[in-house]
Amino acid sequence: MAIMHSTDAVPAFDLRVSIQGTDPEIWRRLQLPADLTVPQFHLAVQAAFGWEDRHLYGIRYVDRKGKPAVLAGPDYETEEAEAAAVSGVVLSDLLDAKQPGRSRIEYEYDFGDCWTHEVELLGAVDLAAGELVCLEGASRGPVEDSGGAAGYTRLVQILADRNHAEYADADSWVFQLTGQSGRQFDASAFDVQSVNRKLRNLSLQWWPQPLTDEDRDAVLRPVRWLLEQASPDGVELTKDGYLKPAMVLRAIEELGWSNMVMGKANREAHAVTVMELREHVIRWRLLRKLKGRLVLTTAGRRALERPADLWDLVIDKIGRPEHDAVYLVTRLYAFWHLTGIAPPWNRKVEAIRAALEAAGFVTRSGHPIPESWASDINQTVRRALGCLHLMEARETRWRQRLLTDGGVKFFLEVSQVLNDR
After folding, report:
1. Residues in the chain with pLDDT < 70?
2. Does domain 319-419 have CATH number 1.20.120?
3. Which of 68, 204, 306, 312 is deepest in the core (most CB within 10 A)?
4. Which of 152, 171, 173 is nearest to 25 (CA)?
């Protein structure tokens, strides 16, 4: 269930949204503010069904005069369409709260595959201001570009039969699009908590909330933890300048990083996240090496005393990278995390390479950016962000990790710094 923003109640609609032609039916029950704009409604439905916002969308409804009408969006891509623009239209313009069970609209996504979502008004409700809620539903959303309801049904049937003549092709295609093999793909899976987390992240962007001490401290916990270990007399290092095994083990246990290590995990080489934390805190000039110990700098002592200063420093370090390519990829990560729409793990480097090429990046000899360079830049950004607690804990390997409240607020501030560059 989404966390309430406020005790103030606003008029809202209780909606049942189902994808036409799916069997078993794919559906969600959503409660959304009546004054939600159509573009916001579009993004809420995208989040609820796991769509990736790759295509145009439209809404069919009956206007107040009883005449059929059509809206199409986004506005900047549908100027030539024979439909009205979506901007300025809200849900209460399309649905009549006085006619539950009879008032309905159709939301169509992807005019090629024609995913028609039937939106039925179950009734009017009061909702806490700024809240978006999914109460229940069934089945994961379809895979993008799978050929509409009939094509997706056939895909699911093929993946359910490993002896099917087309299983290998379907397995490869699904892996490319989702990062999951055919054996891992579960068409019946539905996680209401993940849907509500996505909706919560949207609401925090549409109706921003102030940063709380709890949000800030949770995000900065790994950095503050290492600074606290170094206070007041420093942390003893190995002769090669690494954290000692006992300290590595403490970091893994106390920071919840046990699923990110290999082997015994009592060496930085087996716990890369711990190594990256140490290196970044030194790079950010919060700690320094002195006579075989890791000790606080003046900035590090100030950061411990004033956590708000540490927040600003980390925002600045992440949002103002030295290299243009790292800047571009940081922007990509901010977008991916805030929208909840990102390439699967097996296509992320490919997406980064394509973005770098589109922005005009080439090697010194004028050749396209090689995949190894894109991979290195990806690691640079990932490892800096990995020094922070931005994401919810992963309950299963294949569950998408989503931002916490503090993570959303962090990336909103980072995005502002990036945009000001």
Report:
1. 1-7, 78-81, 394-399
2. no
3. 204
4. 152
